[in-house]
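Q: Focus on the chain.
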Amino acid sequence: MTRFWTIKFLRTILTLWFVVTFAFVVLRTSGDPVVALIGADALPAEIEQFRRQWGLDQPLFVQYLRYVGQMALGEFGTSLRDQRPVIDIIMERLPATLALGLVAYGAALVIGIPAGIAAALRRGRTLDRAIMAFAVFGFALPNFFLGILLILFFSLFLQILPSSGSGTLAHLVMPAITLGTFTAGTLARFTRSAMLEVLDRPYMRAAAAKGVPAWKRVLFHALPNAAIPIVTVIGLNLGQLIAGAIVVETVFGWPGIGRLLVQAVSSRDLAVVQALVLVIAATMVLANLLVDLLYGLLDPRIRGGAR
């Protein structure tokens, strides 16, 4: 078991290092951030002074070593645009993204998993077809398009919800629906498939023959044995909590780190972009680690394989 988690930890560190290195190289080879920040009409002397001030005149390898060393100490640099520590800027925006993501994700869990179970229990019937139609709709419809449709209907036509901004629960409704629809549809599809695989197993028929009530057979026999693929989907979507909010926050003007990333990319604020890419990658990696841990708790055979 120790060897299993040691390998997982080393893979996590290697993945994050690769992401940081890739982002660092791509950002510095895709254009001059100095020109993007102070304008192409700036004097050459001003451009050179800005480069020296921020260390952008040094060789790329020297900049990389300095950045990795600072990151190892928990320092993510200073924003070129705002002249403030990057960590302060991210922490100001992070609560808004977490609030949006957790509400959307919680609603998706409450809707998606029961819907998938109901569809499996009513396989081939009207309820099953209706739920799968919703799942395909949520899975296939792009976030930005769904967000625009909601704005047109609830903000322009009905005029009952604000189209952008934050501050009240009303501002949260449409972004949460937009962000959670995809996850709910995905969970419904995978839950239905996982449940169908176990509903006809011998132990389910044995439980029915013993007179176990249907709800107990579903909750205590079928659902635990179908949990592995469901937990996988839950973990993957949890890892996309921040990455998936980028488009939604931009459409609704939500002041989170997804919108911050778009603004930082457009202004080529290197330090902010690098830190946000690392945050998104770390979220995905930690979600995968959590899924691996839950695998061992749900299935003793996986723990035995790890040993």
In short: The two ends are 5 Å apart (CA to CA). The domain at 90-267 is CATH 1.10.3720.10 (MetI-like fold). The mean pLDDT is 83.
